Amino acid sequence: QVQLVESGGGLVQAGGSLRLSCAASGSIFSLNNMGWYRQAPGKQRELVASITSGGRTNYADSVKGRFTISRDGAKTTVYLQMNSLKPEDTAVYYCNTLSVFYPWGQGTQVTVSS
To answer: Do residues 96 and 45 make contact, with C-beta atoms less than 8 angstroms apart?
Structure first.
């Protein structure tokens, strides 16, 4: 069974940067059509960045120009480079396919202090 494992979160000051990673364990399936999602306390989980199997990327307006999603050549790891972080970016970040095909992982906490 595929398990998604997110890592790279932490505590950072506003304006700082973090790089999140998402890897799949338990399978050799490629991570196609992937998305990074986030859930802030009291809010619904939202899609913030996506990358298709062909490499096309898309971003939520709230992160456009600050976040960059990418994937390694083997398509086994997906990254989210987050720059110019804001306190409103504080959330637990998750990865999954765009169809939410796999069980959610534990996520990685990102906390941005003002």
So the answer is: no
